[in-house]
Structure formats: structure tokens, C-alpha cells
Amino acid sequence: MFQLIIMGATCSSKVKSSPVLSKRRFRVKCRKNIWDSKLRKYSKSIKTLKAKNPCLFQGLLFLGAPKEYRWEAWKVALNYKPQHNNYALLRVYCEENSELSIKKDLGRTFPEEGYFEEGSSGRRSLYNILTAFASAHPEIGYCQGMNYLVGILLLVSDGNESEVYGVLEQLLGELGFSGLFDFGFPCVKELCSKFHSGLNKYCRKVSMHLNEIGMDDNLWLVKWFMTMFAYSLPFSKVVRIWDAVFAKGMHYMVNISLGLVTLIKKSILEKDFFQVAEFLPLLETVKLDTDFLIRCSKQFKVSSELEDYSTDTDTQYT
């Protein structure tokens, strides 16, 4: 029988496998039972769990948050504080160039999701949040890739526009993810450098092949990092990866990238430049067990040290 075990907790006694219940669905039920079991000891409060046992919270989030708890878990992981959210008070005067770029990207944001179709409340929320952020934080502004981050946050939060704005401020401010969009993209370059160092160490054949065919990071790896994989993978896989990244930190995107390349190395090695350039940016058709990917990612020893890209994103309003 398949078992999912973490910190002494097991779900095998509570959920029995059956021919009808797939392994994936079984894991989902196990995960929910483990979270429920742990939360009962902390008044069923994720915030209390993190405050009293941060290591357990990190372990649970890395294991994967159940759909019912994911948004609350992300808010707690990112230190979101409702009292610091001034979204409702903003007077939005977005620069014309930023607004044009935002409008252009709206239709490109998860077009397969009906929630973001033209004229929908989801697309309006996406526009509102991006313009508000670009207006309130001209030092960061708007950059392609932010639309995917906000899109994921909206989908996970069930469209809670105000909370998504506050979480975005935390993500791009105190937690340093704004470094993905700073002028010159220094954080992206640092992540790429760490990735190639790891690739040369752990998967040298792929590293040599990418060098031999002259593959440019801008064609694929930059997209992976700037959108936190939201451009390249299906929603269900992206949110599971975000669980792990929010548990470990921004540097863990390098581990995930190394894990991804390791799992698809055979496909990479048999392709030429044009085939790789078409294959790596969009991996939606790749059969990928995200839980296995995340377990695989733990084997890579990647330094967690990054330059400090955190900024003050306390919203200025008048």
C-alpha cells in the first residue's frame, strides 16, 4: 500500500487504497489527513502552527498544501498582514507605457482558463492589480511575467483581489522576488548562474549538449524563473512547485529546475537547437509527477544564499 509519511505522521490507517482511487487522489487524501491531524494540535490555525512550530509548518508546506488550505498557507508563509494592505485606498494613475504593456499581456495570461477570458471578472481583477502595483511602486513598475504570478494568485485565492495585491507586495517586496524584475535582471542572472553550476555538476551531458547547440537561457530558463514556472507548466503542477519554493525560499527554483532537466534529459539530448528551443519553454505535454519532481529536487546541493533583493513595498497613497 502506498504511504505518505512525514514527521512521524502517516495516512495509511485513515485512507485505504482501492482500484478506483488513483495513486494521485490517494496522495491528496493522505496529505489532507496529515494537515488536519497536525492542525488539530494548534487550534486548527495555520498561523498558530507556524508561530509555534515553524519547522513543522515548513515541512508540511514542502510536502504540499491541500487545496482547501493552500491560500491560507501561502499567506502565512509570505507573512501577509491584512492591516498593511492599502489596496482599497489606492488612487491608480498608471504610466501609459505600463498600462499598454499590461493590456497587451492580459489576453496572454492563461488563455485556456475561462476565468481570464475577455470581459470576465478575472481579467478585470488581473488588470486592476497589475495597474495598481505599477502605479504604487514605480521603482519596480510592470514587467512581463508579473501577469503570470498574479494570475496564479488569483486562481488559488478564488479571486480575492485585495488579498492578492497584498500578497504580491510581500512576494515582490520583503521576500525579494522583485529581484526577478529589477533593471538588468540581476536576480535572474544569479539564479541562472547557480543553475548552470549545478547542471555541470549533476547532469554534465545535458550541460555540454546545451552548450554545443548554443542554447540561450533567454529562450527558456529565464522564462522558468521570471514566471516561477507558470508560463511553462500546467496550473496544477505550478501550485505544487510554489508550495516547495515558499517553504524553502526563492533559491529553491534552482533545485526544481535541476530536477526538471534531470527528468527530461533524454528528450533534451535527442533534440537539436530548434527542437530544444521549442520544447523547453512549454512543458505542458510532458508527463510529470510533481511530487516525484520535488523529492528529486532535494538531492541537489544548491547554496541558499542570494543577494538581498528585498525592497520596501509599503504602499504610498494619497
TrEMBL record:
SMART domains linked to this entry: TBC (SM00164)
GO MF annotation terms: GTPase activator activity; small GTPase binding
Name assigned to this protein: Rab-GAP TBC domain-containing protein
Species assigned in the record: Fabrea salina
Domain Rab-GAP TBC as annotated: residue spans: 64-249
Domain of life: Eukaryota
